[in-house]
Amino acid sequence: MEKKSALITGAASGIGRACAERMAREGYGVVVADWNLAGAEEVAAGICAEGLSAIAVCMDVSDEQAVEAGFDRMVEEYGGCDLVMSNAGIQIVHPFEEYPFSDWRRMMAVHADGAFLVSRAAFRRMKRSGKGGRIVFTGSVQSFVGSKLKEPYNFAKHGVAGLAKAIAREGAEDHIYTYTICPSFIRTPLVDKQIPEQAASLGISEEEVVRNIMLRDTVDGVFTTVEDVANTLAFLANDQGALTGQSIRLTHGWAMQ
Ligand code: NAD
């Protein structure tokens, strides 16, 4: 039987890494895509050491040529493009009135340009194959709420949920299904970096950032985990379209529908 393939961006760390490892265990050939090639190679090597299949590709998701080349490599290696997770992300926080335009542009390059380029590359190959596929965006609870210091992040994370809905409509006849997984805070390097930065910007302690900002609006004061996201991705990988276009909230009750 032909092996299914999954490409995950930002897979050298955090959520992307856990999802790459999980999809390899689900039997997929996995493309570990990241602009941190050494990190991607380490993750791919770990997967291969378990007797599973993965390759690393160097991909800056805001670079059209690098994205297209990474997808070409995927098709060359695995013969198709079944599942793609547009997950790479950064976070830059500043008070809004001080937010530098250059940082806004850095955020848009990764989150907006990256989501567009990665999903378009996936869509093209899924349509061309005649087999369809699944495109999953990593959204956030920030796709539904607004948070101090995070205007560009809120803008972009609301945007990917809309992008998923539009692609769901356009992809349906070719069996291309799209989803947005929307977690609340997860302890990854991206979040660990924010805790001291937010404490400094807001003039509060790091413990207060965790308790009064990150977990305040959950029903149970509990962080979401990378395993929660990986489980959801594995579940969506078997959806036959019933959930296409939907945003799946993994938020411990924050921003319930
Ligand atoms: P992370 O910092 O652990 O991992 C992000 C990865 O993305 C890194 O390996 C980094 O090298 C890579 N990356 C960044 N810019 C890139 C680019 N231009 N091209 C290719 N790779 C790039 O962060 P994480 O917490 O795992 O975040 C992954 C995604 O999940 C992001 O989109 C983030 O916004 C989203 N998210 C995170 C949380 C959370 O609490 N951690 C919650 C909701 C959503």
Question: Would you summarize the structure shown here?
Answer:
The chain is of the alpha/beta class. The chain has helices at 14-25, 37-49, 64-78, 101-129, 151-171, 189-202, 206-214, 226-236, and strands at residues 5-9, 29-34, 54-58, 83-86, 133-138, 176-183, 247-250.
Verbal overview:
This protein has eight helices and seven strands, in the order E-H-E-H-E-H-E-H-E-H-E-H-H-H-E. It is of the alpha/beta class. It has one domain (5-184, 224-250): NAD(P)-binding Rossmann-like Domain (Rossmann fold), CATH 3.40.50.720. It has a seven-stranded parallel β-sheet with strand order 3-2-1-4-5-6-7, sandwiched between helices. Helix 4 (101-129) links the parallel strand 4 (83-86) and strand 5. Helix 1 crosses helix 8, helix 3 runs parallel beside helix 4 and helix 6 crosses helix 7 (206-214). The longest helix is centred in the middle third of the chain and has 29 residues, at 101-129. The chain is globular and about 55 Å long. The protein starts with a strand and ends in a 7-residue tail after the last strand. The mean pLDDT is 97. The structure holds nicotinamide-adenine-dinucleotide. Nicotinamide-adenine-dinucleotide binds next to helix 1, helix 4 and helix 6.
